[in-house]
Amino acid sequence: xxxxxxxxxxxxxxxxxxxxxxxxxxxxxxxxxxxxxxxxxxxxxxxxxxxxxxxxxxxxxxxxxxxxxxxxxxxxxxxxxxxxxxxxxxxxxxxxxxxxxxxxxxxxxxxxxxxxxxxxxxxxxxxxxxxxxxxxxxxxxxxxxxxxxxxxxxxxxxxxxxxxxxxxxxxxxxxxxxxxxxxxxxxxxxxxxxxxxxxxxxxxxxxxxxxxxxxxxxxxxxxxxxxxxxxxxxxxxxxxxxxxxxxxxxxxxxxxxxxxxxxxxxxxxxxxxxxxxxxx
Length: 280
Prior knowledge:
By secondary structure, the protein is of the alpha/beta class. The protein has one domain (7-278). The chain has helices spanning 33-41, 44-48, 51-56, 62-73, 84-98, 145-159, 162-175, 183-190, 196-201, 214-218, 224-245, 263-278, and strands at 7-14, 17-23, 26-27, 30-31, 101-102, 122-128, 131-141, 203-212, 252-260. A 7-stranded mixed sheet has the order 1-2-9-8-7-6-5, sandwiched between helices. Strands 3-4 form a two-stranded antiparallel ribbon. The chain is globular and about 55 Å long.
């Protein structure tokens, strides 16, 4: 089993709100930008392909499937403003830390080339005996954390309204792969005849926020001073988030904070690797 990539510097649980303050780490006096991108590459197939496609892969298909997955995520020069990078990050984080299972590949169902995918940024489940816990994710892949907090809370409040949820559940149901082992259970949970109260009892919202961090830019190794400063930063941001979201969201919210050295450098590195993957 591979070692966990992210270092969970801070973990807090306060009722139905919790925090995981994450760090990609340092190596040889550099923030692990390249290593983070390499790590994300491993998740591209399951992020971008359907369950049936993944099940059908054999040795002869690997290169073609990887190329198709990379193309599905990105084939535009306007990559700086796109959301797929953040969605892939969220996918990887909740897969690694909570062992979630992707329910649908939203990227696979993009309406056309270079179009972003609307709705929740991730649709995963966690199996608990015979029940499914539904994870409806939101991500803000930003440079400014205050803007990220404000925008994501506004979006969450919109997305938990009855009409929005019902429309989104229809869209999700239509995208569930019939061969996926949990297809029938999830379809039943999302059925219009199932009360939203019952859905809320079995659902949570993972929220991933990224931002350019002065603390990350200040350090080049994982030392006591770094841990102290980034811990303080995480706690302050978490308290700001919880204060703003208050009791307006009747679901468990898992907040993941991922500070970056710079978003621009990370996107540039990711863009280069993704283009290489498209050419294999």
